[in-house]
Structure formats: C-alpha cells, structure tokens
Amino acid sequence: MFCFVKAQQTQKLYLSGTGNDNTVNWDFFSTEGMNSGRWTTIPVPSNWELQGFGKYNYGFNKEANKGKEQGLYKYKFSVPSDWKNQKINIVFEGSMTDTEVKINGELAGEIHQGSFYVFKYDISKLLKSGENLLEVKVSKHSANQSVNEAERKADFWIFGGIFRPVYLEALPQTYIDRVQLDAKANGVLTANVFTKGQADKISIELTDKDGKKFGNDFTAKITSGLTKIEQQFKSPSLWSSEFPNLYTATFTLSKNGKPIHQIAKKIGFRTVEVKERDGVYVNGIKMKFKGVNRHSFYPTSGRTTSKKISIADVELMKEMNMNAVRMSHYPPDGHFLDVCDSLGLFVMDELAGWHGNYDTPTGTKLFKEMMLNDENHPSIIFWANGNEGGHNRELDHLFTDNDIQKRPLIHPWEIFGGFETTHYREFNYGIGNYDHGHNILMPTEFLHGMWDGGHGAGIEDYWNAMWNNPLSAGGFLWDFADQAVVRTDKAGELDTDGNHGPDGIVGPYHEKEGSFYTIKEVWSPVFIEKREITAGFDGSFLLENRYAFTNLNQCTFEWRLKKLKAGADAEFKAGKADTPNIKPFEKGKLQVDLPADWKSFDALYLTVKDVYGKELFTWSFPITLPAADADKIVVKTASSKVILKEDAKVYQVLANGIDLTFDKITGLLQQAKNAKGVVPFSNGPVLQEGVNNFKNFTAKMDGENLVISSKFDKKESWNTLQWTIYPSGWLKMEVKYFPSEYFTTFVGLNFSYPETEIKSVEYKGNGPYRVWKNRMKGTEFGIWKKDYNDSATGEPAWQYPEFKGYHSNMYWCEFIGKSQTFKVVTDREDVFLRLFTPKKSKDTEYDNMSPTFPTGDISFMNGISAIGTKTQKPETTGPMGMKNIYYDFDKAPSRALDMTLYFDFSVR
C-alpha cells in the first residue's frame, strides 16, 4: 500500500481577532488621557481612542495638544501541544507606534518603530509548556523622531494601539522563508525561493480559480538558501483590472522525496512596462488610470478595518468605474491588497512619509517589511517612496534592488523617474504645461474633494484633457471617504477635525455624494456621444470603447421607455439591444430597435452593464420637451371670469378662487391667496445679475385673459415683465432680461419663500442630486420626490441627496409646504431650479470653494454658479468652472434672455 505524506503548511493561531468585526479582549492600561491609570480590558485589534482611552488628536495639532500616551497590554495564551519542536513566531500586522514585546517577562527582540508594517519575532525559546504571558507596551508617538516626521506629523488622524491582528505562526525547522514571484504576460514565471534548514528539492504546482491544474508541475534542486526558478506556462489568462485572473502557485519543500513544508501564493500573469515620454503599459496596452487615494479607515474603529470593509471599498471604487487606487500614505492591510487582486484594481503602494521621511536605517528596515508582505500582489504596479516631499532618496535604490518585478517607483508630487505627478495643478496652468511637456503625466492627487468641492466638480474638463493627451496616464483623486471619526469623548459625535477630514467622494459610512455619480458617468468605459432624441431619431448611438481589454460585445445594453407621471409608477417598455463589436479604443454604433410608439413616451433610458453584469451607467434622454408638458399641464379656460381691481399701488386680480396682488410700480407678485389662505410665495421675479427696471405697467384684457405688462425702453426699461392671468386661475410670467455684466456668476429670477414652511418638493427634471455649473453629469431625468433636509456635504448627518442647491432641467416642480402646496411649470428648456441656500461649510483661509448662491429663497435660473476645491477657485478647475458669459448688450428684445413660468396656486 502506497502512502502519500502531506507537507506541513504554516499554521496560525490568532491571539487577537482578525479585524474590527472580530476582536479578542486583552488586559489594558492607558498611561494618559481618557480612562487612564487603571487596568481594564480592550478589544484587540483596535485603536484605543475609539475604545475610550487616551486622547484624540489630528496630525496638524500643535505639539502641546498631542496625545503622548502609552498603552500596556497583557494576554495569556497556550501553545498547541503538536507545535513541539516547531519554529514559532509572534506576528504583529500593525501597531501604533513603538512596540515593545515580552514573552514570559523576556524581551522578544528590539522595540519595533513604525506603525503600518508587519513585524515578527522568533519566540521559540521563550515559550514554556502550559500558559504563557504576552506583555506589550505601545507608545503612540515614537522615540525615533524620523518616524514621527513620516507618520505622526501628517494630514490625517493620529491613533494609538495594536490596530491590526496578532498571531502565532508555526513552521517546521526546515521551511520556505520567502518567495518572490514575477509572472509575466508571456507566461514566464520567475521565482526566488528562500529556504531555511535541510532540504533538497522545491516543486511548484499551478491551479486556476476552479482548482484545475494549469501547466506542468516543476521541480528544482535547492541551491544554498536561495533557489532561482524560471518556468514557461502556455497561454495563461492574464491579470488586469478588467479581467483579474488569478492562479494559485503551491510551493512544496522536500527532502529525499518527503514533503516538509508547503505554502501557496496567489499570482497573476501580467507585465508592467514604462515607456519613456510615452506611457505606462500593462500587458502591452497603454493605460489611463482612473484612480483615487484611500486611507485605511473606519469611523468607529479608526485604522482598524476588516476584509468586509476592504471588499466594500473596492466594490464602490469599481462602481465608480475606477481602475486604480493609491495607498495614502502607508501600506494597507493585507486583505485590502487581496481584494484588489481578486476584484481588479491597479494599486500604487506607498512607503509612509507625508511631508517628513524616515531616516535611512529606519526606512530601510520598514521598506523590507513592506516588500516582504506586499511584493507578490499582481494588483501592485507602482511603488511610491513617501508623499509630497517625504521622500528619502537614499531609499530609492532599495525598490529596484529588491523588487523582482522591477515595478516603477513614483515620488508623489514630484517630477521623478519620467513621471510628472504634481498635485492640484490649476486647469489652465497644469494642462498647458502638460501639452508642452515631455514627461508621463499622472497627478497622484488632483481635484481635492473637501466638502462638496472637487471630485465631480471639474472632472469632466480634466478628464477630457487627460484622455486626449497621449502623454497622460490619468490620475488619482483626493480622496475616497470622509475621515470622520467617532468621538467616544463627545457622546459619539462624528468629527472631521473641521475642514481637514471631509474630503471624500463617499461619507464615513460610505454615503454616496453627488460626485459619486458624476465620476461614474465621466469615467464610464463606454462613452456615449451626446445626442438629442428628436422626431428623426433612428435608434442609433455613437459609442467609444474606453476599455483597455474589453470588447463592447462582452457588455450588455438594455433600454427602457417610460411615461413619467407624478405620484405613480411609470408605464414602460423595455428590451435589449444587440451588442456592437467595438474593440478597445475604437468607435462604433449601437442600434436600438424601438417600438413604433416610442414617441408617445417621455424618456428613453439606456443602461450598459459590464461583462460581470455590473451597471456602468444609465443614461437618460428626454423625449417630450417642456413645452409639450406645459401644454398638457397648464389649464387656461374656466367658466369663471378674470376680475381686475386696482388702486394707485396695486393690481388685485381674482380668477377661479385665486386672489393675486401685484405691485403696480415694480410689477412684482406681492401675494397669492386661495380658499385656504395666503400661499407664502411672493416678492418676485427679482433679477439676479440684472436690473429690475420693469416700468410703466398697464393692464388690459386679451380675450378672456388679463395681461399686465411693462413697457420696453432701450435706455430705461430694457428688461420686461408680463403677467397673464387665465380664467382658470393659472398665472403665466414672461421675463425678458439682459445680465448686468459680460461675466456673471449666475443669472435668473428670485422669489421669496420661507424655508421654515417647506416640507418637500416633487419635480420633473434631472435628479435626485444637485448640480454645479462644473458638475452637471451623474444625474438622471425623471420625477423626483425630495423631503426637506438641511444637510451640508461632509457634515453630520451625511444625509444625501442634499435638498438645497441647484437642480437641472426643470420641467415642473410642486412645492409641498406645511400649510400650502403650489406648482410651477415652465415651457423652456435648460431651466435650473434653485432651492434655498445650503449652509456654507468652513473653507480654508483661501476661501476657494466659493459656493455662491442668488439672493431670495427659490430661484429659476438660466445660469448657475460653479464650485471650487480646497486648492482652486471655481474658474481654475476648467472651462466649465468659469463664469457665465453674455456678450450681447444691444438691448434688442429678440436678443434677451427669457424665462417663462406658469403658477398654479389652487387648493390641493
């Protein structure tokens, strides 16, 4: 009988939990701050501030305010009996910051300095049978000043504690110590296998995702402590962000035919190549990186995360059609890199260093720890040595010398290694430089997303320039999620440290801001050329394939026609279109075969899904225009008559139970009243960025309608206002006006309406998220019901979509108040609805965001304002961020801007 002997795999015994969703209580003592000076317990892993210990501090805090506490940990454990004669390591995946480890009262090794790195001690000789005592002393701030400069004096929250898992690992005395892998797109797998002890052979077996063997096994003779292996595999499925094909490489160490030790690594066949003055190529394809910066962070647990959080983060990035992520500003949890490998994101992994850097001895040690744990992940295609000046150049050679894959090295915010990565370039200056430069262009931070500024605002301009510039390799937004931490010392309030932390595209608990959907549309790998749905529409759309590896015939195209009705489910017809054969970076046509009655619907929706069935985006196209809607909605006739009463000051008009009062001099609506009482909507239209020089009003009957109108005069009253009151009680307003300046922040008409009165609105237009002049994409055409909220982006309680702000392409809006409800309809296209003024969040001293709004409460606008970023004024984020431009001041009525609105003040 033949017996197969299995090799021992590295065994693990967790002393802590595995993340913030799985912890183990250890004994704990904090030396300063909250709950200090007494022994109690703390969950491990965790940051102690989030557990009610020590002191919260943000990296920018002055020295006097910094928490300098230490945490003392104790934990008793026993070693499995079958681990006898094994090499036993204790492994810390991350501890903030200086960490002293004792086993049974004896030091396990030198104090570890540096927060974000996996470190271990061989404690085989310190263990005893039965119960063992682990004692750990963690100092929040390091005795090594360079560690504080690199990690602690940074633009992010500073935490303390054992924040990543702790475990024991057991290995045989002869074992595989390290494997370095380089799996190229041509199928060549190169491995450096480091071994300890007495062995004579190492074998490799590859299996695919289904566990099926791939290629032939390979066996090599052990040569001293390092064995170099090269093996050719035929036609492997390649790894990329679009197709993250992984294989499992199993290494078995043996002696005299007896297997001793076995480890397995996930690998991906892919080749990364930088071509000078050209670009970054993955598997021979030139890439445009659609990336974001990401902190390891969760509001209830600080830097302690979990695999569940890693999956959620990557899935949200993929949902925004991103293909890359930068680790800011330190190496992440291993499970995050595992998820990037399996779901498909290109990664820039970063040695810590914000504006300061590690000294060379410390940096060398921490570099080796980072490389040892991260080097084989196929998702990592860049290394970064520090950030924004935090580059110790003496460490640069280590990346090249120690990386078997020779991945490119980046100095974020520098021109280095053929890359121009400068942060937060203004559009004209940056893009101008790019157009005339020679380096590969890849800003590692751009469009800073503080509050509601940046990210979606400006990204269309930037991306159009990046996409069309051959030297551009894309870039990385700042940043993924708001850094709001739960303050256990302040009744659980979420704290962003003012304007330091609210920089995310999503909120602290992954609440989606409006920019989320803008990015999703702008970065869609299926680009749909703008088109109008007119009577001559033949069902065709011009597409561009912006994928690098996917043919559009691998995607799914679904259409839906809807009849939009307020307060009711829409009637619809739906179907699928034949997928077009359009190769990456090519253009082609999609043909949608619509039913013969498609013109009877209000809107057409086109949804594109990727090869995995995930939505890339849903585009919406109005079929019915506002004028047609207004014809159906506005009621003009009734059995009653319009009655006019006037005195020296006002026109008072009665029609079908509606009582309207107009100022006879200014022409403004003073009051609207119905059987329930006064409708609190008045004092308009007041021109924004224009002069209310309506003059010489007259009132006359036009058939059954009453018309109150001003007189045009090119010198004194070139802006005109006309009211038409119908027998039905509906009111029509027509304004023709000229802006006061060539360049205007916004233009439109204001009315007064008390914010305390509003409950909600229901409107037809683009929604549900608000827009800015430089963030118009990401919305969907439909009917939207929005309840009032006073939410400000990036502030408690992260309630999205925000109620206040600009909403585009309004057809009609019903204002639902606490006492009265009324409706406004337009027959004009491209009208913006402005709902009140959002709270202005605390900007920096430069006041760059400038989210300016008109006067009044409710506005109907022809042009709206843009928003800036933390580092840029709105107008420097690109052409869309510039002011509205109106050059024609001829004052001819035919050249005026115009706004037509209909009002229904009847009882509901």
UniProtKB/TrEMBL annotation:
Keywords, ordered alphabetically: Calcium, Glycosidase, Hydrolase
Entry GO MF terms: hydrolase activity
Highest taxon listed in the record's lineage: Bacteria
Summary of subunit composition and partner proteins: Monomer.
Name listed for the protein in its UniProt record: beta-galactosidase
Domain Beta galactosidase small chain/ intervals: 703-820
Cofactor: Ca(2+)
Family membership: Belongs to the glycosyl hydrolase 2 family.
rRNA-binding in keyword set: no
Keyword Hydrolase attached: yes
Pfam families according to UniProt: Bgal_small_N, Glyco_hydro_2, Glyco_hydro_2_C, Glyco_hydro_2_N
Catalyzed reactions per annotation: Hydrolysis of terminal non-reducing beta-D-galactose residues in beta-D-galactosides
